[in-house]
Records
---
Amino acid sequence: MTIAVIGIGLIGGSLVVDLRKRGFADRIIGVDSNMHHQNIALLCGLVDENDTLENAIDKSDLIILTTPVNTNCSMLPGILERIAGTSKVVTDMGSTKASIAEVSKNHPGRGRYVAVHPMAGTEYSGPLAAVGKLFDYKNAIICDRELSDPDALGLIERMLDVLNMHKVYMNPSDHDVHVAYISHISHITSFSLALCVLDKEQEEQNILALAGGGFESTVRLAKSNGETWAPIFLENSQFILEVMDTYIDKMNSFRKMITEKDINGLKSLMEEANKIRKILN
């Protein structure tokens, strides 16, 4: 099988590491607008060649979109046009699904597309961030599977099995609500905390010297690439704003208890938050 990976970064690079190693892909073609990324991917052996989008589509059996979500949306209709009448399959790895579902739902070639979101990643970006086993035992969300042709869906499900991923099926709106709560708000919180500390650091040079493990784990996501996350926040703005309002309300509850020196109220809030252990364990 020949695979075209459109966007050779953390996700695309990590995908092909395991798909090649585990025998799913025979040849991998990279497509990236960043010449530096192209060269690194070729030198590191992530891809066998780099090519234009059109040539890569024509040469490949499977096209995987791993660019920012807004770019995935803009490219998908044209790709579906180009593969019309063939057995080729296209999938995306985007973190939002409602917008790409909307642009593809009435397309005559919709059946050749399978919408996927692997719940895996790190705070790093680019082809040098690619690692093996990134997806092992993580969840992979497949949206609108009934709109995909059975053979297209079967191919992507086999790919996810090769990656040792657990398959979960959702509709796009439910998916976007859930990721707003469990992923997107975590990134916004981390970015915000980093900005707060950087503001204070301008006045007090020792503040980062005191940072421990708790701070590092909380602010880790602030190292994530804005080119990736800004489009996600805008694409999923409806649900993210809803989550942010809830988050601000909870912050205000803590602020109120601290202002009033209400130790029992603080303990009560924390004990309520501790219930998350039952979900995460």
Note: Strands lie at 2-6, 27-31, 49-50, 62-65, 89-92, 113-118, 139-143, 166-170.
---
Amino acid sequence: MDIITHWQGIDPALRGASAAMGNFDGVHCGHQAVIDHARRPGMPLGIVTFEPHPRAFFAPDAAPFRLMNAEARQNRLRRLGVERLYELPFAQIAGLSAEEFAREVLADGLGLAHVVVGADFRFGKGRQGDADMLREFGAAKGFEVSVVALIGGEDGAISSTAIRTALSEGRVQDAGAMLGHRHRIDGAVLHGAKRGRMLGYPTANMALDGLHLPRFGVYAVKVEVMSGPHAGCYDGVASLGVRPMFGENAPNLEVHILDFEGDLYDTHLSVALVDFLRGEEKFDTVEALVAQMDADSARARAVLKDA
């Protein structure tokens, strides 16, 4: 997958794509319907999206809300067969009018042949443009526009908001049903305090910066090591939270890969939350903590056996 982070001076070989456009936070079932509609014979499949997320740009002090960081979104879109990801710098686009965006970015810049958006898509300074306006601009500037109706679930339209609610409540399977895939946290393995190794449970530590936090607790997980000599898929158990027993308050994800030996530093992981096992607890003794970790690992094995 080619990742393009600008729209000016695009290589002519990268023009002519059929592209779905939006933020695609979570790449949920609704997003996938938009992407599927952009699949056209003879045209490269593209995505037009933005970094940072516009909501983070306009409200930088708001609570973390993203379901995916840029890396996780890239990985998911690659799995869906996207060939060109136009990941555009939103700060350079935010001041463009709807007409300027359509002309300068979509037509003259990226040279798109076909653009697909959801029915609720808005664009341009002050969110002045809508799907109907994009159709008009496309007709005038030489690209086709398709608009996809919102996809509904049992409780209404599938949305990132509904998925965040499910994750906050530990309902990872409900979140997965709306996403169309398991919720994943992707990123680099960081150096930690190495307490897990001393307890017999070495962990790979991952940051959660900028992400909406699922319910704190312990999860059965599927772990994909994305790089390095141990690349592959593994079963695991993970603790997501602030490690109350050790008086820390910065949330992170600590992943223990079952039956694994090896160094994962400087590699990247993609961790899928399969099932919520229990809430975060503070234990009186290290012995009690280790006993609970033994129980958590046994339960994770049972859950993951058929997952």
Note: The mean pLDDT is 91.
